[in-house]
Design brief:
It is built from eight helices and eleven strands. The chain has one domain: Rossmann fold (3-Layer(aba) Sandwich), CATH 3.40.50. By secondary structure, it is an alpha/beta fold. InterPro entries: ChyE-like, Class_I_gatase-like, GATASE.
Length: about 240
């Protein structure tokens, strides 16, 4: 099997390690099955799409909609390199899956409006498939129900979908939870890689990053421990199953 390119943009070591382990687990991949790029730390290596099965982009504390002057040099570079990669990925309709930060990068690249209108606190939310979502090949392969729970926690989201994007899933607070570009490019606002252990770790890591009141950390951990988000993981394994070559 040709490897998948897994791109991370998490400057926090523990968060990056946790995301890497979770992506491997729920994608059903081993370290030998991925080319791993920590884009927040070093430039994107040479990418030959012919040598890959697909591209997966994880979440990030970066916000694409922040003013450029407020972004770190590493974020500006990472976003520029991601945009250049997406130029080629979109042109070829090459398999792509972006989780949370992937919504921002793919949405901005395709002309959508990403802003702070629909933030969601760290929590488990109910994701509802649209009619297009129920008939989408990847979603059908994953076998997720019409409504399922998933973990979220974000300051920015899609306010207006790109022209031509297909809305696959909605939510109560954030109306765009999953969309598709062309036939093979997917993005989710929720985190399909996060389970209770994973989100608990991130809550502790990002305690003072503005995602929630730090004084509420322990009650928040107790609340997320009750969530059942197993259905959301199946989208990742379905992506790998569908596109591995």
């Amino acid at each position: 099997m040709k490897p998948f390119l897994l791109i991370a943009t998490r400057p926090e070591d523990a968060a990056a390690r946790g995301e890497y382990r979770a992506m491997l687990r729920y994608c059903g991949l081993t370290p030998r099955d991925v080319v791993y790029s920590q884009l927040d730390r070093s430039p994107l290596p040479r990418v030959d799409l012919d040598e890959l099965s697909g591209v997966i982009v994880g979440g990030s504390p970066y916000s694409t909609s922040d003013p450029t002057e407020e972004k770190s040099p590493d974020q500006v570079r990472a976003e520029s390199e991601l945009s250049g990669l997406l130029d080629r990925v979109v042109a070829r309709d090459f398999p792509f899956f972006g989780a949370c930060y992937g919504v921002g990068t793919l949405g901005v690249h395709q002309g959508g409006l990403i802003d702070h209108t629909y933030p969601e606190p760290v929590s488990a939310v109910t994701v509802s498939l649209t009619e297009d979502g129920r008939s989408d090949p990847l979603v059908r392969l994953a076998g997720v129900p019409d409504r399922f729970d998933a973990f979220v926690g974000h300051k920015e989201s899609v306010h207006r979908l790109p022209a031509g994007a297909v809305l696959l899933a909605t939510g109560t607070a954030a109306p765009v939870q999953m969309f598709r570009i062309r036939k093979n490019l997917y993005a989710t606002q929720f985190h399909p890689e996060l389970d209770v252990e994973g989100i608990t770790e991130r809550i502790r890591i990002y305690r003072d990053k503005g995602y929630f009141d730090p004084e509420e950390m322990e009650p928040l951990i107790e609340r997320v421990a009750l969530a059942e988000v197993e259905d959301s993981h199946r989208l990742l394994s379905a992506f790998v199953t569908r596109y591995a070559r």
